[in-house]
Amino acid sequence: LLQQMWNQEKEHLKKFNELMVAYRVRPTVLLPLWNVAGFVLGAGSALLGKKGAMACTVAVEESISSHYNTQIRTLMEEDPEKYKELLQVIKKFRDDELEHHDIGLKHDAEEAPVYSVLKKAIQLGCKGAIFLSERI
């Protein structure tokens, strides 16, 4: 199960790297920082055990799904025909993230220590990272 989620995340990263080249998009200069932050977040939540790791999964995937939905709305408003392929990719990846979110809930994420505080803190960090990445 975790391996399947990991494989999907690697697929997402590979595809987005290809899309950045195809659409001539510069990645954020903060990417190295986000790589470290992601590792620290994953390792830190794992220290709370399986439930903590699942709580982290729920929080992150909910934030990412929301971000994908914002991107979908923007592309639909701009030119849905022009971005048809990109929209399909983003919708598929959003659905993958929602599946990961649901898996986290099924595996007792809400039973993690201080779940609501942990979830809010992680989501605040995700929103901040997205905000900064869109600007830097």
From TrEMBL:
One of its GO terms (biological process) is ubiquinone biosynthetic process. The keyword Transmembrane helix applies. The keyword Cell division does not apply. Pathway: Cofactor biosynthesis; ubiquinone biosynthesis. GO terms for cellular component: mitochondrial inner membrane; nucleus. Keywords: Iron, Membrane, Metal-binding, Monooxygenase, Oxidoreductase, Transmembrane, Transmembrane helix, Ubiquinone biosynthesis. It comes from the Eukaryota. This is COQ7 protein. It comes from Oreotrochilus melanogaster.
